[in-house]
Design brief:
elongated; two-stranded antiparallel sheet; 3 domains; three-stranded antiparallel β-sheet; mainly alpha
Length: 504
């Protein structure tokens, strides 16, 4: 057997216990890269062509036993373990290899210091080399290090790998593999199988022992025999190892493996989600109604949603919608000025469930509210249109008395026509006839009632329009001197800063 064959036979990382005829440390020197040579420019290894080839070197280092850091330092890892291989697998997935400590902590579940220890192990074995070293400066965000995945020189020597450098002027780490010795092919095949399998995240000894204690407590009086560390076996069919932390493993029944779970669990999940969304419970419906009310009602803007959910708990439990709540508030009457929205809502919703106790009653309240909304919308449109015609129109009230008289006669004729076409006489007779019809014509009386209602709400638009278009005398003959006088007083008071006209 040649020296290379002997080295390959000794350095095969087998999972079975075997007697080594040759000391591995005597065959190959210790695997250790000092800190000054952990940079790519000073590395003796070569850059791995891909993550698969690099994982072959990682598994070789893990099974060789050549990495003994306790000879050089007293802190850090004691050996190259399974967690280091798992972290290397995460690094093999990155391109470029630019990991952050927070990312590795989240994927491995380790602390920041343990992640640094495993990265140091990869650098000290020649598997990682610095391209750019991360920095930590006060007042600035920390910068992650960028690594190059390298294959150690001792890996090539142990397997008899021949390399060649395409360009003589290129750095030494750019050389590529061109062949392998016959003795190293079997070992390379075994390393290829290990590199193709995904390494699972190792379980700690504390978690495995805690799970064993918990399973022992759940059992009804049965004794649990703990498996010793030296006799643990893996469920994958491998040999025993004293450093294994797999613990006891139980497999699920084949019925669950076939469908991924029982039929009852799938049915419960499908029933819990209606239409692709989770069905709300009683508390969820309260909060949903409260959130919709705070968005719909202006005087509830800014109120606490949990407080409103507590106020509407009765109507929400009865199945009320936001439209039905608004219909009830329309029947009760809303306020223009609100000091505390949640308190007012609690007062308005008192006895709402007992009053509107059927869906028909709630539907009627919603219909009344929508009709009121439509009427308010139309009134607002008419008001805006009248204001636009009054202030923004091209027509202006004439200043001549003769022209005002003619305009008044024209309006009188129009009113006579709209009242049924009666008394279309000479314009001079229209004024007297209007005076005669002031108390007997139902159309004129209806107009005066409408003006009275508007004056009670503080609105003087109709009388202002009549005064501006026909003059005050004609407006007094049409609506009455008392209504015109009250309207002018309200119009003058509205321009004062000491008077407020509106509803409380």
């Amino acid at each position: 057997m040649t020296l290379v064959a002997a080295q390959a036979a000794v350095m095969v990382p087998s999972s079975h216990t075997s007697v080594l005829l040759v000391d591995p440390v005597a065959v190959l020197p210790e695997l250790w890269v000092p800190e000054a040579e952990q940079w790519l420019s000073s590395s003796a290894g070569r850059v791995a062509p891909d993550g698969y080839s690099w994982m072959q070197a990682v598994h070789w280092v893990a099974g060789s036993g050549l990495y003994q850091p306790r000879r050089h330092r007293s802190t850090g890892l004691r050996s190259f373990n399974a967690t280091t291989v798992y972290l290397a697998q995460l690094l093999a997935e990155l391109s470029p290899c630019f990991p952050g400590l927070s990312y590795l902590q989240r994927r491995t579940g380790l602390s920041e210091r343990m992640v640094e220890y495993h990265l140091a192990a990869l650098r000290e074995t020649g598997l990682l080399s610095y391209i750019v070293k991360g920095t930590r400066k006060r007042g600035e965000a920390p910068q992650a290090s960028e690594f190059a995945r390298t294959i150690p020189l001792k890996f090539d020597e142990a397997l008899g790998i021949r390399t060649r450098q395409s360009d003589q002027d290129a750095p030494a780490f750019t050389r590529v593999m061109v062949g392998i010795a016959e003795a190293g092919r079997e070992l390379m095949a075994k390393l290829a199988k290990k590199a193709s399998r995904k390494v699972r995240r190792p379980r700690s000894k504390t978690s495995s022992r805690a799970s064993e204690k918990a399973s022992g407590k759940r059992s009804s009086g049965t004794a649990v025999t703990a498996v010793s560390d030296g006799s643990r076996c893996t469920p994958m069919g491998g040999g025993s190892s004293s450093a294994s932390t797999a613990g006891s493993t139980s497999f699920p029944p084949e019925s669950k493996l076939a469908r991924g779970g029982s039929k009852s669990s799938i049915t419960k999940k499908s029933e819990a989600k209606a239409g692709g969304r989770r069905k709300l419970n009683r508390v969820g419906r309260r909060f949903q109604l409260a959130r919709e009310l705070t968005q719909e009602l202006d005087w509830l803007r800014g109120c606490s949603v949990p407080r409103i959910a507590w106020v509407v708990r009765d109507v929400a439990d009865a199945g009320w919608t936001v439209a039905e709540v608004r219909g009830w508030l329309h029947l009760r009457g809303e306020a223009a000025r609100v000091r505390r929205g949640s308190g007012l809502l609690a007062a308005l919703l008192a006895n709402a469930v007992t009053t509107l106790d059927t869906p028909e009653k709630r539907a009627y309240a919603v219909e009344q509210w929508r009709c009121a909304q439509e009427a308010a919308r139309r009134h607002h449109i008419q008001k805006v249109r009248a204001r636009t015609e009054r202030f923004d129109g091209d027509w202006q009230a004439p200043t001549s008395l003769a022209v005002l008289r003619d305009v008044e006669q024209a309006f009188a004729q129009v009113r006579a026509v709209t009242s049924g076409g009666r008394d279309q006489h000479h314009p001079a007779e229209t004024h007297d006839h209007c005076e005669d019809l002031a108390l007997t014509d139902p159309q004129v009386e209806e107009m005066r009632d409408q003006v009275r209602c508007e004056l009670m709400r503080g609105q003087t638009d109709l009388i202002d329009l009549a005064v501006d278009s026909m003059g005050r005398e004609a407006a007094e003959r049409l609506y009455g001197a008392d209504l015109v006088r009250r309207a002018r007083q309200l119009a003058g008071a509205a321009r004062s800063s000491h008077v407020f006209i509106g509803r409380r």
